[in-house]
Amino acid sequence: MISIDNLHVEFAAKPLFSGVSFVVNDRDRIALMGKNGAGKSTMLKIIAGLQQPTEGCVAIPKETTIGYLPQVMVLSDGQTVRQEAEKAFAHFHEMQEQLNRLNDEMLKRTDYESDDYMLLVERYTHLNDHLQMMGGLDYQGELERTLQGLGFQREDFDRPTSEFSGGWRMRIELAKLLLQRPDVLLLDEPTNHLDIESIQWLEQFLMTRAGAVVLVSHDRAFINNVTTRTLEISCGRVYDYKVKYDEYLVLRQERREQQLRAYENQQKEIADIKAFIDRFRYQATKAIQVQSRIKQLEKIIPIEVDEVDNSALHLRFTCSMRSGDYPVICEDTAKTYGEHNVFHEVNLTIKRGEKVAFVGKNGEGKSTLVKCIMGEIPFDGGLKVGHNVQIGYFAQNQAQLLDGELTVFDTIDRVARGDIRTKIRDILGAFMFGGEASDKKVKVLSGGERTRLAMIKLLLEPVNLLILDEPTNHLDLRSKDVLKEAIRNFDGTVILVSHDRDFLDGLVSRVYEFGGGRVREHIGGIYDFLHSRQIENLNQLGSVGSPSAKTGNGQQATGNNGQRPAETKVPSDSKLSYEEQKVQARMRKKLEKAVEDAEQRVSELEASVKMLEDKLATPEGATDTAFYEKYANLKSQLSQAEDEWAEAVEALEA
Question: How far apart are the C-alpha atoms of 436 and 434, rounded to whole Å?
């Protein structure tokens, strides 16, 4: 479909690519990999026709359409979400206008038997059939399904785009791109502004309904689920692996080991030749052999080994003094903006040393609750931050808040205190800002570099509660692995707001699900939570029966002093094995189902009793003894159902 031949790209006389050739075939699912600065985004721009190579060519068939989603784009305001998304169907509107013109022309003419009229009818029929085949008559349904898949609610469709954050407007641009159904999709970090639900929907779309896909992403699970081929940019070349990402890592390691062996053999050969030249350079009897060795040395083509960044990137969050047993306790916490209820009756207790995740669709209140914990915004109800708690907070937009005019060194120098100021260069070097990189201005840094710099600022003060809101956005896979290991080794408490399933996997022992104005607790890891949600077939995160909500998220309520009641003997999740947590989660699911079934039964019987009471209030009903017998029977059933509901709730609370 697309052929890249002998591509060569230079920036300031420095080669980025050299002699790159590959083909993008129909239905290919390609992951474009490489370290930051290797040229992944540049390659996408060249394929999209937005940038010209220094040499080489990109051959694209005339009828092939290409859709490109950049990392950063200029967003326009002034229209509603629906109107903006409908721009994807501009060609449908043009075809419909052309059909209207042809129809008007046919109505005006009377030469029905002429060849010219028959040609007009044929053009109209062909264009109308083409429009129907493309789905032009039912595009509104496709538009709404796509917007809802990316997280928009139906009531959002007629809201102005100016009311939405930059991340949500990026979703509108993604929706427009997907609705255009191009033959080739070029996606640069498409998951940066998506939540878990939307990422899963996008995965399904790309796997089942898209043509060819070339994507750059740091979401390992997303890449593995979507792609079947990996192109790695390294040393100015492109290496083509016909496998998905996990298999590519194994093959890449094998290839690099082969390169290292060949490199070492070549270096030994070069050393031997040089030793011979140095030894016999001034002996006339060996002049011919020396000249031969010199020519042999000049003909050797150096073997390059794939670039591996050996910089010492080591994250270490220093835990300060020991905090209280429960760093965060929420008791009927609520937050509203005007008439909009973000969440209510939030009851949760986070124990010291726990690592928990806040997940849910964007806009359901995850970051809002974090801001309540930080004391940045007012709230209703109770929210207690425990004794001796020192919070380290990384906000979603932390990297964007850095002063672009300062250098990397000055950024850290302004926040460093005491003896740490003498070690700034060492710290920056550990975060891959060594040498000249520390003198770069922040405004020229990539998104991943800014995120690393913001993380350094967070490390400078010892804390015992880390709150990280989307910390992996713009981080490459290696940096994410290092950050994950640092969080795992942190002795304090951690609250993670993230949509990155691979990052959360194996890191958290409890998941709090935000949705529908409620917060629901799930014991176990992120994939336990996802599996649970899929089994329950939840259409909206956070849907939960009211009986289990009586204790807030199904969790045991805390007393006034923030301690659990003495009769509760629940072992700490951190002390349970993975299998024990899964058994506990399954048991909890059964109990929640029993509570929901009992509540449904009570509601049905209450409705029947109310209906019968209304009939008994009439003259006809008051004289009919059958009604009284039925009423007594229903009241007995209702009493029994209420007892069963109470037992189910008690079992769930226990």
Answer: 6
The alpha carbon of residue 320 and the mean position of all alpha carbons in its chain are separated, in whole angstroms, by: 31
Q: Is the pLDDT of residue 471 over 60?
A: yes
Q: What is the mean pLDDT of the chain?
A: 80
Dist CA 339 CA 98 (whole Å): 47
For residue 283, count other CB atoms closer than 10 A to its CB: 10
> CA–CA separation, 470 vs 464, rounded Å?
19
What does the alpha-carbon distance between residue 188 and residue 216 come to, in Å, rounded to a whole number? 5
Residue 504 buriedness (CB in 10 A; 0-12 / 13-18 / 19+) = buried
In whole angstroms, give the CA distance from residue 405 to residue 71: 22
Of 199-208, 300-309, 335-344, 537-546, the one with minimum mean pLDDT is 537-546
Residue 493 CB-density burial (10 A; 0-12 exposed, 13-18 middle, 19+ buried):
buried
pLDDT higher at 626 or 110: 110
Residue 170's CB: how many other CB atoms inside 10 A? 23
**From CA 400, how far away is CA 137, in angstroms rounded?**
43
Lowest mean pLDDT among 145-159, 254-268, 357-371, 408-422: 408-422
- Which of 254, 249, 194, 186 lies closest to 222, judged by CA? 194
> E-strand spans in 201-259?
212-216, 229-234, 237-241
| pLDDT value, residue 191 | 85
The residue-averaged pLDDT of 429-436 equals: 71
Identify how many contiguous H helices and E strands the chain contains and give both numbers.
21, 18
Torsion sign over Cα 31, 36, 39, 42:
positive
Phi-psi sector, 628: left (phi>0), alpha (psi -120 to 50), beta: alpha
Q: How confident is the model at residue 540 (pLDDT cuts 50, 70, 90)?
A: very low
Strand ranges of the sheet holding 380-385, from the earlier edge strand across to the other edge: 340-350, 328-337, 380-385
**Which of 77-86, 126-135, 460-469 comes out lowest in average pLDDT?**
126-135
* Beta-bridge partner residues of 24: 2
Taking a C-beta distance cutoff of 8 angstroms, is the pair 182, 209 a contact? no
The DSSP H or E segment spanning 422 is: none
**Residue for token pair 């995740």:** 357
DSSP class of residue 557 equals P
pLDDT of 581? 64
- Higher-confidence residue of 363 and 354: namely 354
Residue 409 half-sphere exposure toward CB, CA atoms < 13 A: 14
Cα–Cα distance list, 322 to 348, 552, 573, 641 (Å): 21, 28, 20, 48
Cα dist from 601 to 330, 585, 643, 647, whole Å:
31, 24, 11, 14
| Residue 539, pLDDT above cutoff 50 | no
Alpha-carbon gap, residue 418 to 410, rounded angstroms? 15
Q: Which residue has the higher pLDDT, 446 or 532?
A: 532
Q: Where are the alpha helices (DSSP H) in 505-577?
A: 526-536, 546-549
**473 compared with 146, residue with greater pLDDT:** 146
Rg of the chain's alpha carbons, rounded to an integer? 32
Please choose, from the candidates 353, 385, 388, 389, the residue with its C-alpha nearest in 3D space to the C-alpha of residue 371: 385
- Listed in order, strand segments (DSSP E) in 132-209 are 184-188
**Which structure tokens are listed for 571?**
């072992």
Residue 335's DSSP bridge partners are 343
Asked if 139 and 59 touch (Cβ cutoff 8 Å), the reply is: no
Q: Which amino acid is at 339?
A: E
pLDDT digits 0-9 by tens, 491-530 = 899 999 988 888 898 999 999 999 888 999 999 988 888 8
